[in-house]
Write a structure and sequence with these properties.
Blueprint (H helix, E strand, L loop, with lengths): L1 E5 L17 H10 L8 E4 L35 H14 L4 E6 L4 E3 L3 H10 L3 E2 L32 E3 H9 L2 H9 L13 H5 L11 H8 L6 E2 L4 E3 L1 E5 L5 E5 L9 H8 L3 E4 L4 E4 L1 E2 L2 E2 L5 E3 L3 H9 L20
Helix pairs in contact: 2-4
Length: about 325
């Protein structure tokens, strides 16, 4: 989901969803915290499966009605279609000159604060917030990318980004780096027991996840890293697990009802810096030189975890009736 922030005197910011279903957390966030005065401060853009429509039969929140892209594409994880979808979302949001901040979000993200706080945080920041770092220990860089993409410009980071308008334009306008990614940055085929020895050959193929590298590398190539807060606004709980063939990998964990309590949420809200061990860098979270919480959103939340966030009053007083109605569009 991309949420684009607007200037107060004009219109709204956007969200971007990868899947069909509008999450409980987002629908209820709008119902609980968006006032009539806020409606002019955000706009929503959704990349969904081609042909899928957001209407009264698929979501109770009228904020999402008809907000799906008309030119959406079929997306496959680990393929360049992921970054193509992001470019389509940003292009749609850029058509409205009132949109000044662009936030890429997942349908399994939930906000940690109310709408007003999030909007002010985004609009007060003069920089893009893009998690970006040099990871010398990972092997996703493909030497065949050179000379178009030199290794010293290769970056890695979270795909959950927040952009100022000029950086969104850079991403939409790019064709050269996108073509290189489409050709040389592809996910290695997953293991398939039915293939037997062929697995060994397939596992020698280069492995690359485009949406964890494209924006970061492109902005580095354009010498724009000095204009970034090199961090993400979306907290992800990672856990290392041993995969097949003795290869260790990191996976995002899903928050359940049990581990989404007040203490856990407060712990995330209290984070004020991020350490990047591969660069020996600590990114302190500031907004116009003032210390601020690092994270505005959390990923991945189950339905039960989202319900607990609401019932614990993270957004304010909670009434179950809000789940059955939309204060701006009663049924």
């Amino acid at each position: 989901m991309v949420v684009s922030g607007r200037t107060m005197s004009k219109k709204p910011p956007p969200p971007f969803l990868r899947r069909h279903v509008i999450w409980l957390g987002w629908r209820t966030l709008f119902a609980l915290t968006v006032t009539n005065a806020d409606v002019a401060n955000f706009s929503i853009y959704v990349h969904s499966t081609p042909g899928f429509l957001f209407d009264e039969s698929t979501t109770r929140s009228h904020f999402f009605y008809g907000r799906q892209l008309k030119n959406s594409i079929q997306v496959a994880w680990g393929e360049s279609s992921m970054i193509k979808a992001e470019k389509l979302l940003l292009a749609a949001a850029l058509e409205d000159p009132a949109n000044q901040r662009f936030v890429l979000l997942s349908d399994s993200c939930v906000p940690l604060y109310n709408f007003s706080y999030i909007h002010n945080y985004l609009m007060d920041s003069p920089r893009s917030l893009v998690d970006s770092f040099l990871d010398a220990n990972e092997g996703r860089y493909n030497p065949k990318m050179a000379p178009a993409i030199p290794k010293n410009k290769w970056r890695k980071g979270s795909q959950w980004i927040t952009l100022i308008r000029s950086h969104a334009e850079v991403i939409v306008d790019d064709e050269v780096i996108f073509r290189v990614f489409s050709k040389f940055c592809k996910r290695r085929p997953p293991l398939d027991a039915r293939l037997g020895e062929l697995n060994r050959k397939l596992q020698k193929q280069h492995d690359c996840i485009p949406d964890e590298h494209y924006v970061q590398t492109l902005l580095a190539m354009m010498e724009l890293e000095g204009d970034l807060e090199r961090r993400t606004l979306t907290y992800t709980w990672w856990s290392q697990s041993a995969a097949k063939m003795n290869d260790k990998s990191w996976h995002p964990m899903t928050f359940s009802y049990a581990n989404a309590g007040p203490q856990q949420i407060k712990g995330i809200k209290d984070i004020n810096h991020v350490n990047y061990e591969t660069e020996g860098r600590t990114e302190w979270c500031h907004n116009n030189s003032a210390s601020v919480p690092c994270f505005l959103f959390v990923k991945k939340f189950s339905r039960g975890a989202a319900m607990r966030l609401l019932s614990d009053g993270v957004f304010g007083p909670f009434e179950a009736s809000v789940l059955l109605s939309d204060p701006f569009h009663p049924h």
